[in-house]
């Protein structure tokens, strides 16, 4: 049977990189989003609202995927609403596809908030797990929309007989516009503003993050693991961490990023300087920069997600991720993290998203 992929959230960092990888491997690939990505050659766009089941049924009427990759979520004001909305989105897509009886595997992308807690209690006292983070770490005794999404997949798998995999990346680094969690582009935009205005490239986070070890997830290596897990028998019905495979300290990388952009770096200086506050009044300045250099995106909020970068860089503990589980099962792809950032910055410049 031919592999037919449905990438749910194909306009985001994870979904767009996954769609491109699937297409290079010869898969028939559909990309579902409210505003589908039409820039990826040979990707078949599907416009649909995951919260409108009748709309979903109509959009998917002639599509019978063998593999479903759920890479999207929606941010809401409270965790209770996150649970309701994000759980419903997963349930709706799997309910609509259930009638087709074509699905063999469903892969769900969540993240390290599985271990660190939801936005409302993120990496706070009482919710600080042992690091490096391991897949067997039990769920925290607190509401978390990632758990709700997982439970929807488990229930549908039991009903319909497909296999599943759960993927928990650290901060995903890759190119996308309009993404709610986009550290790599946020830092590139911040550095570009610093360059243009003569401001210092000031570390926004905690001492623990500045001095401690960390890791991140290149969107391309996440795509590789998603495909591997969905096509490897030993990887079925398992949850996997996924990071590049190396570790780094921000105390080094911050200076390397500053060097790339030709700006002066300021490291941790006994206080946190949130990017959300630092960039709060930069919307108009970004418009000026975009017009001056002929950039494609004049809206700062479509490129930078300072609030999420602050969450990651302000954590009170160092955060590393154990990759032994998938390594033992044969997933051996590796990515150098410094190259991840430099290659992203090069891509952003080539795409006329930063000067």
TrEMBL record:
Which InterPro entries did the record assign?
NAD(P)-bd_dom_sf (IPR036291), PRISE-like_Rossmann-fold (IPR055222)
- Return the CDD domains for the record: 5beta-POR_like_SDR_a
Renumbered to this chain, the signal peptide range is none
Note the Pfam families from the entry: PRISE (PF22917)
Q: By its UniProt entry, which Gene3D superfamilies does this protein fall under?
A: NAD(P)-binding Rossmann-like Domain
Domain spans labelled PRISE-like Rossmann-fold: 57-355
**The protein, known as:** NAD dependent epimerase/dehydratase
Its taxonomic placement starts with:
Bacteria, Pseudomonadati, Bacteroidota, Sphingobacteriia, Sphingobacteriales
């Amino acid at each position: 049977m031919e592999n037919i992929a449905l990438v749910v959230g194909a306009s985001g960092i994870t979904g767009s990189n996954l769609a491109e990888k699937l297409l290079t491997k010869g898969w028939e690939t559909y990309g579902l989003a409210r505003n589908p990505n039409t820039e990826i050659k040979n990707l078949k766009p599907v416009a649909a609202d995951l919260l409108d089941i009748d709309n979903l049924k109509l959009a998917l009427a002639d599509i019978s995927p063998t593999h479903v990759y759920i890479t999207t979520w929606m941010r809401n004001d409270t965790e209770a609403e996150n649970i309701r909305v994000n759980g419903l989105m997963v349930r709706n897509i799997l309910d609509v596809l259930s009638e087709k009886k074509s699905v063999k595997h469903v892969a769900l992308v969540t993240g390290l908030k599985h271990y660190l807690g939801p936005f409302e209690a993120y990496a706070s006292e009482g919710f600080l797990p042992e690091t490096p983070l391991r897949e067997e770490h039990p769920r925290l005794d607190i509401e978390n929309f990632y758990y709700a999404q997982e439970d929807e997949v488990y229930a549908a798998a039991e009903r319909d007989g497909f296999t599943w995999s759960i993927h928990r990346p650290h901060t995903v680094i890759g190119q996308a516009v309009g993404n709610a969690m986009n550290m790599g582009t946020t830092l590139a935009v911040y550095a570009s503003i610093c360059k243009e205005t003569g401001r210092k490239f000031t570390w926004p986070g905690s001492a623990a993050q500045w001095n401690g070890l960390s890791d991140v997830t290149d969107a391309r290596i996440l795509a590789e693991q998603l495909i591997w897990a969905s096509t490897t028998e030993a990887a079925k019905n398992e949850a996997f961490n996924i990071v590049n495979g190396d570790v780094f300290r921000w105390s080094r990388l911050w200076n390397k990023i500053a060097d790339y952009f030709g700006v002066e770096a300021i490291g941790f200086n006994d206080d946190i300087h949130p990017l959300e506050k630092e960039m709060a009044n930069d919307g108009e300045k970004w418009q000026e920069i975009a017009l001056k250099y002929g950039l494609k995106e004049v809206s700062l909020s479509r490129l930078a997600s300072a609030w999420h970068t602050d969450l990651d860089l302000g954590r009170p503990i160092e955060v590393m991720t154990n990759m032994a589980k998938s390594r033992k099962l044969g997933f051996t792809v590796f990515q150098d993290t410094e190259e991840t950032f430099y290659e992203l910055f090069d891509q952003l410049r080539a795409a006329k998203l930063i000067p």
